[in-house]
Amino acid sequence: MRRFFIWALHLEEVTTLELEKMSEKNRVAYVLSREEELSVQEAADVLGTTPAVIKQRAHRAYEHLRVAIGAVGWRPQSGASGGQLRRQVEHALCEP
Prior knowledge:
The protein has helices at 2-21, 24-35, 40-47, 51-71, 82-94. It has 96 residues and is mainly α.
């Protein structure tokens, strides 16, 4: 359990650092849609853009984070489909 806790802390640190590295537009779209849990339309309204742009920017940020957390040793469960993989990554990013 302690080993997992240390890994989770490292994962949070990596996530924070990677969010700081990405473009502000992608980071803000990701934070609004994933962490603040705004709908795509609500995030688009806040940023004065279209829902399609928010989806694209949030996806770019998500892919950036997926690669970063893979570099620290996280691996998806085998046989995961696209939607399952996304939920696994988001779960890994949100675990305490």
